## 1
Amino acid sequence: MVFLLLRRVVQTALILLGVAAITFLLLYALPADPARMIAGRSATAQTVANIRRELGLDQPLLVQFWSYLQGLFQGDLGRSYAQKTDVGALIAARLPATLILMAAGIAVEVVLGVFLGVLAAVRRGGFVDRAVMMASFVGVSAPQFVAALLLLYVFAVTLAWFPMSGFGTPAHVVLPALTLGVLGAGWYARMVRSAMIDVLNQDYVRTARAKGLSSARIIFRHALPNALLPIIAMIGIDIGQFMSGVVVVEAVYGWPGIGQLAWQAIQQVDIPIIMGVTLVSALAIVLGNLLADILAPLVDPRIRAR
Amino acid sequence: MQALKAMVRQPAALFGLIVVALVVFLAIAAPLIAPYSPDEQMFDGLTLEGAPLPPSAQFLLGTDTLGRDLFSRLLYGARTSLVIGLVANGIAVTIGLLIGILSGYMRGIVGGALMRFTDLMMAFPALLLAIVLAALLRPSLWIVAMVIALVNWVQVARIVYTETRGLVERDFILAERSLGAGHGRILFHHILPHLIPTAIVWGTLGIATTVLLEATLSFLGIGVQPPTPSWGNIIFESQSYFQAAPWLVFIPGAVILLTALSFNLVGDALRDILDPTQRGRG
């Protein structure tokens, strides 16, 4: 068990190294020239060359990559070209906002998903079941930015229940979190539904029923805990989706997280920030998967025995 | 044919099939159906104050902020979305099949390396990667298609890999090998045909993903560039105006949703039909 975990940790480190290498190569190979972007449109060739030397952009590829990696091992993500500050500090300042948004989004997704999934499983084949299944398809087919604008239009513009954009009070979190959570909830509902159906068909549930326990007690005390395992793995996988969704949602709602940071950096070809955010996102995704692997046997002893 | 018949019997799949057929038809026939040119900025397409017009008899779905007919732009936008959907997804499925088969069939260093590379790509946030690429490449329609393909092959590769691994272990492959069949023959005559259902299913489901990704990139202003109409950039162009002219955002939004939903429904029905082991599962 410990050995297996160690192997996963080493694998995680290797994947992160690979992510760093690919990101670096991609941005190196792209035609956009950061030195020219910093210098501005009216700069002379001399100025551009100076900036290029200052940033080390005239060095060979491998030298640049090596010095980048050295920095990474010391926790140094480089300096932003445009904002002239530490990328690590910029991301650290923005990260809490994104984490709040993600936590709220995941909470909406899981609560709604479990509720609908249980409902569909219990009323299998009925109207609720079919409606939930259909809604899950609509959820994955809806573009996030349209959902964001729709919620904005209905609840912020028309009803004025929530603020249009910004950050600070709990009311600001509601619409962005709903955008992230509602669309994904359908998929959770599907997983919970099929896991619940498997569990409800098992002998111990029949025994519980024969003992005369109430349906509610059987469903929530006996069946549901065993049907929740796939949810843990799902959240781990889902973090990737969330990191992507965060860019769009933060752009629409003016949420000051790392998605917005990346979005602004892309428009200024601020490569160190783009690389930093990509790396942090990849770290979140890999850690999410790792965490799911670690948590699964803690929650379900059956996996520990394997 | 069998698949088509089975699909017509399911209401959801039938609905998807009809919408897909309709979108394809409208895209092809756009020049015949569109009442105006998609790029024409009409003088009577704006109010006296210069605001876009809501839907009316003259402009079925209203006009946009430049006085262009929204209905005509949506029709031509369908062409953009479908071309990108077919090209980008075609490339993604091809790359995914190739890498999946090779890594599943070849043991040892090459297969392992390919699969590690796929794992690596899984760790990238797909949309973020696409945004980075699209923003830095100054996109045209084809660049957008390439970017989407580069991001979307990973999932296909994963699934094909798993299926190929299963197939390689089967007796008929073993028999074939002991009869002296070469790698090429085994791969193309015996393994590839078994993967065609998977390719068809992902070829369909992937179009939904692609349409959504294209719309998202265009919405962020880094997808298909105006004046070429795309469903995403129609919304991008009018989003700052959406409180006053909500139809400019929600009509294209509904069109994107309906199209993606239909491809998903058809793809899901195809999966049920082509792969009996998945039938009736959540």
## 2
Amino acid sequence: MTTTTSTRTSARTGTAYLIRGGSLLGRGVEDLLVRDGRIAAVGSAAASGAPQDAVTIDADGLVVLPGMVDLHTHLREPGREDAETVETGSRAAALGGFTAVHAMANSSPVADTAGVVEQVYRLGLASGWVEVRPVGAVTVGLGGERLAELGAMAESRAGVRVFSDDGICVSDPVLMRRALEYVKAFDGVIAQHAQEPRLTEGAQMNEGDVSAVLGLAGWPAVAEESIIARDVLLAQHVGSRLHVCHVSTAGSVEIIRWAKARGIDVTAEVTPHHLLLTDELVRSYDPVYKVNPPLRTPDDVTALRAALADGTIDAVGTDHAPHPSEHKECEWAQAAMGMTGLETALSVVQHAMVDTGLLDWEGFARVTSVTPARIGRLGHQGRPLAAGEPANLILVDPAARWTVDPTTMATKGRNSPFRGLQLPGSVRATFYAGHATVLDGRLATPRPVPAADEEAPAWNL
Amino acid sequence: MKHLLSTHDLSARNALRLLDVAEEMAAVGDREIKKLPALRGRTVVNLFFEDSTRTRISFEAAAKRLSADVINFAAKGSSVSKGESLKDTAQTLEAMSADAVVIRHPASGAPARLAASGWIDAAVVNAGDGTHEHPTQALLDAFTLRRHWARVGGTPSAGTDLTGMKVLIVGDVLHSRVARSNVWLLTTLGAEVLLAGPPTLLPIGVGAWPCTVHYDLDDALAQRPDAVMMLRLQAERMNAAFFPSTREYSRRWGFDDGRLALLDALGLDDTVVMHPGPMNRGLEISSAAADSPRSTVLAQVRNGVSVRMAALYLLLAGDPHDDVPEQHDLPALIPEGRTP
Amino acid sequence: MTVPASESGIHKRVVLAEADIDRALTRIAHEILEANKGSRDLVLLGIPRRGFPLAQRLAQKIAAVDPTVDPDLIAGQLDVTMYRDDLRRHPTRSPLATQLPPSGIDDKVVVLVDDVLYSGRTIRAALDALADLGRPRAVRLAVLVDRGHRELPIRADHVGKNLPTSSRERVRVHLAETDLIGGSAVNEVVIEDRV
């Protein structure tokens, strides 16, 4: 990809971009004009409508996709700025091809009030690399005892629609029922971290053949599946919308498939690492492979891929979880759970799903952008690549090959389980609301903070 | 062999070599001067994150008989318990030029982590990690079994394996590093292994292990094992709903006087009873069984020093940068009979 | 006698054939008896591997001269692996068995037996090993071949053959008890040299 830079850019409306020869959703080759935050024209009208000072991008051989939307990101701010900040995490997101991320609530203080979610939201606006949508905690302090002020968070400037105690399961069935019911008032969704706490006390890895050999306390699949089974039945009973975070087992897939067949309003996400890695890696005792839910078996990976392909699992969520190195440079049992994922998600999903023929690029857009945007109620993300639509899009070189080196990543976390792997696909450019945050595969500039009103919602220019 | 981390990854060749060298080390233990100069000038650090006086003094005796300098580092109650990481501890030992680190740790995999991390260049010997492995315990058990098997067969033990031997391991397999190390090592050496214990104390995934599983101890004894290895029941398991009561556990899975008599009734004259110690007398093993002529408990302790000498010798004596396995183009010359 | 260079580029020369070895051992056996003024208190300790069968053969020959001697009761094996000064320079060697005659070595005349005397370091190790096992009245050394190049002040009391060699060459002793060459047991001493 080469860019021909114009000398003059408009401060008011930003640069216009004429993207030439890209393959829209991996199908037809069309030109595309990005201007004033929107896709101004598609096809022959793009070139003819381009202003004199438009930057032309040669996208020959590249795939044009809607910007990816992550339902599950840990940005660590406020509280653990040594692990990640909104700034570093959203830089990583832009490089990874995201135009929106949902920042999980397990910060310190917990995002359980309008004040904290607005703080995170404003930090996202100020950073300008991607749209940062805070997730609100379901219970006060993730304590699992009292509902947080869900309505206040929904009505705040952050406009929270996704609520989750992620990291901790809302295990109390009554509390879960109330939460599912309550968020119906503002079209919210409860994103459940499905983990039966008693069955997973001290759990270190998937319970099975490998844990038996390694002598590590098991995290049985049933601890996830039993909660999902309970929650889909609760969602059916109260007529609510349920989202299941990071589905990791073949049994969970079967339960969700059953629930969907019964018309229950459930959606589910899978992480890139659960689409590729298995618990065999734990034999090294290297805590870079320690994650919650744990890496499972090859049979689970196969089932998860098939479920993502057939729509049983709706979306990819990275569960990007950066940790400072001292939390991983230790014994397995003492190590923190979690892996970084923003900068490897596209490549891992391409490798696991596209290059295997399970999904085409349109399917990729569905699971990484269109559906997660719909689940998060982000009306301006995951849109069609058509004239008049918001210009949240990425240019991807599917033929590229690169070797993962965590030390060169934008995230502060060095805990990538893909370290040293050669992966396909690279993000060449990211356009967030028409602004190029990534060009030539490198960070460009953040989208300027809307000048008129610093607190304006992200999209309303 | 650069480290001794598990028996799961130990080849039959290396296992036999360890046992054969241990035979020579045992002969040294019978001499008046029980010391060899092989590791003079080398430093062995006993890094114990868990209390285990028995294992620690066994390694200490082994290192000292080989003339190594020994530093005992009881990490419990030291700077480690004040939050110092394994990494910092390891780098401290590296700065002190430790040649070998014998590590006992409550976390499964800590020795493997130490060996693979690059924090330290020393040879790492796993002296028991969490519920993972305790390879030198299994080696001393195998050594004890091999000597017994050779005596029964009327052959010298050096160079032989455990083919044809049937070993029954009884008790809390789920939490036992001794059981894991023994399952892998004994099967590698050709023995047939049977497990018996309450289903709650057998790991999910045990079906993939190279052994048969019995829930009833008497059924397992009817399989005519040549050795019965009783596992220690940890106190913390007793109140965690793995079984209703210690009385019921003892009745169903304890090696009591009745089962001792059963061995006689079955005509199993050469069957030995093993225990890694320390024993809960009256719980997993009766006093009569522990003190009977069938008991190998004291022989196991004695053999522990020989096996640990062998491990330290094989890890430390040679050129550390030359990991080429020794080639034996000739069978080892083993004189018949041995005079002290 | 010269054997043509093998394919591996190693030139082999047989310097002692079976009959030569036998004659040399017979002579050494007589020398030992003469030096000791009889078989009294004699103990022959072979250094593994090939020193041990040589010690056994010498014991047989001594018994042939002195019928009061039981060859099995005067020959033994002394492993010196753990006493070597070059352990760190090689991959780890497994120690072999040490087997002393029932009489022990205290106040005995111990004849150390080895196949080739070269640097002398093996014998130095053997002397240290002996000291940990007991206190002989005297220690002597018998070797089948002395090839020179000593690095320590050690010399043999009884030598089968002095063999001037270059340090590039290797001296190989093959004995029926320990070596199979091409599937058959042979007794020979060979000098190998890279061509």
